[in-house]
């Protein structure tokens, strides 16, 4: 399946391509380092919302066209009518656009992989951090430039960063605006892996294919449990694990996993 937007290149687009169980979303606005317009953010939200209930899908792969992943939100495009926004405009609008996108990536039961080359800045950085696995080129750059622009962080950065890299490093990125290269990001545990630029597509493809062959229902339940249990007590986490285990044990993939173990072979999970 391929869904190509017909928007002019200057306005950008999000291309949807389904390859079997893999949904690939390509942010395509390279002339602006793939900075998102409101329309592009809506396209991503629509694609993820649809993917969440599409039983043919088993993994989502997000990438940028050209030399960069995503340079955040294009504020020029957001306010291109020249009028001063009404009071409360951000409070009304952002929960249904940028914030909704981060929530969907974080909560969808499908695993989400981001491939990052070049810049991942602002919301682009947070989109990569919200993914389950981000594979980056060693020379990629992660940057939270909010304070250097005179405003406070948004799109989940103050929630994501301390959980991923701890308070001290989160403050270095958010309060001091320090840029973090791909290799350092992997060393911090900010992302899954950093590789040589020439190997980026191959490593991403291997990871996507591995996830596409996983027991999809159990994987989604495990993702939810890991996230929910970050703020839970041990007792609450154990109870949550029992509930997800009960559901996972009712799947066809669970039966296949047991059969493969008994027969001493690799399982062939179907995502059911």
TrEMBL record:
<dbReference type="InterPro" id="IPR014748">
    <property type="entry name" value="Enoyl-CoA_hydra_C"/>
</dbReference>
<feature type="region of interest" description="Disordered">
    <location>
        <begin position="1"/>
        <end position="21"/>
    </location>
</feature>
<comment type="similarity">
    <text>Belongs to the enoyl-CoA hydratase/isomerase family.</text>
</comment>
<dbReference type="InterPro" id="IPR029045">
    <property type="entry name" value="ClpP/crotonase-like_dom_sf"/>
</dbReference>
<dbReference type="Pfam" id="PF00378">
    <property type="entry name" value="ECH_1"/>
</dbReference>
<dbReference type="InterPro" id="IPR001753">
    <property type="entry name" value="Enoyl-CoA_hydra/iso"/>
</dbReference>
<protein>
    <submittedName>
        <fullName>Enoyl-CoA hydratase/isomerase family protein</fullName>
    </submittedName>
</protein>
């Amino acid at each position: 399946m391929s869904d190509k937007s017909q928007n002019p290149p200057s306005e950008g687009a999000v291309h949807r391509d389904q390859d079997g169980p893999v949904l690939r979303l390509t942010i395509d606005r390279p002339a602006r380092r793939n900075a998102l317009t409101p329309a592009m953010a809506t396209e991503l939200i629509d694609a993820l919302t649809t993917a969440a209930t599409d039983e043919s899908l088993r993994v989502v792969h997000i990438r940028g066209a050209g030399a960069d992943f995503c340079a955040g939100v294009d504020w020029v495009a957001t306010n291109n009518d020249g009028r001063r926004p009404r009071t409360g405009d951000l409070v009304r609008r952002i929960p249904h656009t940028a914030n909704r996108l981060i929530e969907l990536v974080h909560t969808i039961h499908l695993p989400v992989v981001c491939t990052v080359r070049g810049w991942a800045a602002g919301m682009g950085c947070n989109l990569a951090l919200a993914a389950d696995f981000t594979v980056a080129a060693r020379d990629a750059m992660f940057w939270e430039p909010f304070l250097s622009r005179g405003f406070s962080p948004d799109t989940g950065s103050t929630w994501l960063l301390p959980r991923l890299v701890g308070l001290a490093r989160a403050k270095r990125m958010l309060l001091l605006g320090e840029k973090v290269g791909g290799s350092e990001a992997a060393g911090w545990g900010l992302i899954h892996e950093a590789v040589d630029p020439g190997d980026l597509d191959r490593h991403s493809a291997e990871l996507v294919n591995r996830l596409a062959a996983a027991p999809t229902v159990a994987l989604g339940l495990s993702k939810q449990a890991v996230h929910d249990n970050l703020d839970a007590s041990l007792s609450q986490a154990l109870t949550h694990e029992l509930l997800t285990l009960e559901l996972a044990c009712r799947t066809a993939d669970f039966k296949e996993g047991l059969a493969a173990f008994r027969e001493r072979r690799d399982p062939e999970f179907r995502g059911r």
